[in-house]
Design goal:
Blueprint: H1 3-24, H2 30-43, E1 48-50, E2 53-58, E3 61-68, E4 71-73, E5 77-82, H3 89-102, E6 106-111, E7 121-125, H4 127-130
Helix pairs in contact: 1-2
Length: 136
C-alpha cells in the first residue's frame, strides 16, 4: 500500500463521518456513531473490523490485553471514535498504541461532539507511514 492509498482511505473515513454526523449531529453515545460508521464504510466498499482485541507480541509470545480498537479500515487506518466535550490525552495515547501494536501507518481520532466534524478530527501517522512508498 502507498501513502497516497492510505491517505485516500483516511479521506473516505472522514467523508463517512461527515455523512453520519449530518444525519445525527452531536449528542449520541459513541457506540451509536461506531455502528453507523461501520455500516457507512461497508456501504462504500471498505473492509471494516470493529472492536477487535489488540494483542502484544513480546519476546516471541503473543499476549492478550484488554485493549480494543473501535474500527480498522482496509487494514491500514485505525479509527478511534469519541463523543465527548474534550479529548483526553490518554485517548490519543491509546490510538497511538493501537497503531504501533497493530503496525498500522495511520490513525484518526474523530469526535462527534461537535458542530463541524472536520474540526474535531485529528490524523496521526507513525514510523510505518514514513516507510510506505509515495505512490505518485
Amino acid at each position: 500500500m502507498t501513502k497516497k492509498e492510505v491517505n485516500q482511505v483516511a479521506f473516505d473515513v472522514i467523508s463517512s463521518a461527515i455523512e453520519v454526523h449530518k444525519t445525527f449531529g452531536p449528542g449520541l453515545l459513541e457506540s451509536v456513531y461506531e455502528a453507523c460508521m461501520e455500516y457507512e464504510l461497508k456501504l462504500r466498499g471498505f473492509d471494516v473490523q470493529r472492536q477487535q482485541k489488540v494483542f502484544v507480541l513480546y519476546k516471541e509470545i503473543k499476549l492478550e490485553t484488554e485493549l480494543r480498537f473501535d474500527l480498522l479500515v482496509d487494514d491500514c487506518v485505525v479509527v478511534e471514535l469519541k463523543a465527548v466535550q474534550e479529548i483526553n490525552p490518554i485517548e490519543v495515547a491509546k490510538l497511538l498504541s493501537y497503531m504501533k501494536l497493530l503496525k498500522k501507518p495511520k490513525g484518526l481520532m474523530i469526535n462527534f461532539f461537535t458542530d463541524k466534524i472536520t474540526k474535531s478530527t485529528t490524523p496521526y501517522v507513525n514510523e510505518y507511514f514514513s516507510v510506505l512508498p509515495d505512490g505518485d
